[in-house]
């Protein structure tokens, strides 16, 4: 089963912010945001995307991070607060390796520049003949 969850701000609809995943926000802040996430009116944790998009979104995020189906995960929670805490912990645990690697790379910008330069050189080598043929076909060179 493939789920698409929205991981952003306080609304259950929005766009993924890459900076959040790469460590622009600290895990504590991310956890705080998750526990303040928008849920729906009512007091029962159920996976019903049409009737309760906020809770459904949190369950989809949890399923994506921790595994399992959103509907099955819903039965393990008796309150929105417990669900939000579980989602916060799962998101923080999921992104931690990315944040660690991002921090390592941030400490060595020279390495990052070298990797980018090497990749650009390899790409030029691979595409040079195709670019030459395209320029000739367009009449840009004789």
What percent of the residues sit in helical stretches (DSSP H or I)?
55-70%
SSE string, helix = H, strand = E?
A: HHHHHH
Please identify which CATH superfamily of the largest domain we are dealing with.
Answer: Tyrosyl-Transfer RNA Synthetase
Output the radius of gyration. 22 Å
Structural class: mainly alpha
| 3D shape | elongated
Q: CATH first level of the largest domain: which class?
A: Mainly Alpha
The end-to-end distance, rounded to whole angstroms, is: 54 Å
Low-confidence stretches: none
Sketch the major β-sheet: none
CATH architecture of the largest domain: Orthogonal Bundle
What would the CATH topology of the largest domain be? Tyrosyl-Transfer RNA Synthetase
Average pLDDT score = 80
Domain count: 2
Organism: Phytohabitans suffuscus
InterPro entries: Rossmann-like_a/b/a_fold (IPR014729), Trp-tRNA_synthetase (IPR050203)
GO cellular component, one term: cytosol
GO molecular function: tryptophan-tRNA ligase activity
List the helices and strands and how they pair.
Layout (H helix, E strand, L loop, with lengths): L17 H4 L5 H9 L17 H14 L3 H5 L5 H27 L2 H29 L5
Helix pairs in contact: 2-5, 3-5
Structure description:
This protein is mainly alpha-helical. The protein is built from six helices and no strands. The protein has helices at 18-21, 27-35, 53-66, 70-74, 80-106, 109-137. The longest helix is centred in the C-terminal third of the chain and has 29 residues, at 109-137. The protein is elongated. It comes from Phytohabitans suffuscus. This is Tryptophan--tRNA ligase. InterPro entries: Rossmann-like_a/b/a_fold (IPR014729), Trp-tRNA_synthetase (IPR050203). One of its GO terms (molecular function) is tryptophan-tRNA ligase activity.
């Amino acid at each position: 089963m493939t789920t698409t969850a929205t991981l952003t701000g306080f609304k259950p609809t929005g766009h993924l912010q890459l900076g959040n995943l790469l460590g622009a926000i600290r895990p504590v802040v991310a956890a705080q945001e998750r526990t303040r996430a928008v849920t729906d009116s009512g007091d029962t944790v159920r996976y019903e995307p049409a009737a309760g998009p906020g809770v459904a979104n949190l369950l989809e995020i949890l399923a994506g991070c921790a595994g399992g189906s959103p509907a099955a995960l819903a039965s393990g929670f008796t309150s929105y607060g417990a669900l939000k805490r579980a989602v916060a912990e799962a998101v923080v645990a999921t992104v931690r390796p990315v944040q660690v690697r991002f921090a390592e790379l941030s400490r060595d910008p020279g390495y990052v520049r070298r990797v980018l330069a090497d990749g650009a050189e390899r790409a030029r080598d691979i595409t040079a003949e195709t670019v030459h043929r395209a320029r000739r076909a367009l009449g840009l060179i004789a």
